[in-house]
Amino acid sequence: MMMRTGLLATLACLGTLSVAHAADYEDFARVLSVTPQYEQVNYPQQECRTEYVPVQRQQQRGAGGSLIGGIAGGIIGNQVGGGSGRAVATAAGAITGAIVGDRLENNDRGAVVDQQPVRQCRTIDNWQSRANGYVVTYEYHGHTYTSVMPYDPGERMRVRVSVMPR
């Protein structure tokens, strides 16, 4: 008997559910207006360029002029000097020849200016407008409704209608 009562209660509930579900249906409403809603979105971009800047670098000094000048000066000093002054004249000639030879070879060797590439970048704003929804005003059975939708529904739109008893 208890089992029979439980079975009847279950059947009654299932019957009520199907009746309530049958009261929901879909229909079409007439769209009165569609207004897109825009938002500003920043898509930053990086802009880069290469600039060439002057950079000084020292050239290496050569030693060949000093060496050859020292030898030549020593030979000349040895020729000029005589007796015990010959050694002093040879040394003085070698020193003077080395200085003159160095200046001749390295006189125009100073700082060399090269161009070095330097990449410089900056971020620039790129603002764009994009639609993020549509305010839709529609009419269904003489009543006007407004809703925000993610798309433009066109001239008519599908609506879900629910009928519930009071």
From TrEMBL:
<feature type="signal peptide">
    <location>
        <begin position="1"/>
        <end position="22"/>
    </location>
</feature>
<dbReference type="InterPro" id="IPR008816">
    <property type="entry name" value="Gly_zipper_2TM_dom"/>
</dbReference>
<dbReference type="GO" id="GO:0019867">
    <property type="term" value="C:outer membrane"/>
</dbReference>
<keyword id="KW-0472">Membrane</keyword>
<dbReference type="InterPro" id="IPR051407">
    <property type="entry name" value="Bact_OM_lipoprot/Surf_antigen"/>
</dbReference>
<protein>
    <recommendedName>
        <fullName>Glycine zipper 2TM domain-containing protein</fullName>
    </recommendedName>
</protein>
<keyword id="KW-0732">Signal</keyword>
<feature type="domain" description="Glycine zipper 2TM">
    <location>
        <begin position="64"/>
        <end position="103"/>
    </location>
</feature>
<dbReference type="Pfam" id="PF05433">
    <property type="entry name" value="Rick_17kDa_Anti"/>
</dbReference>
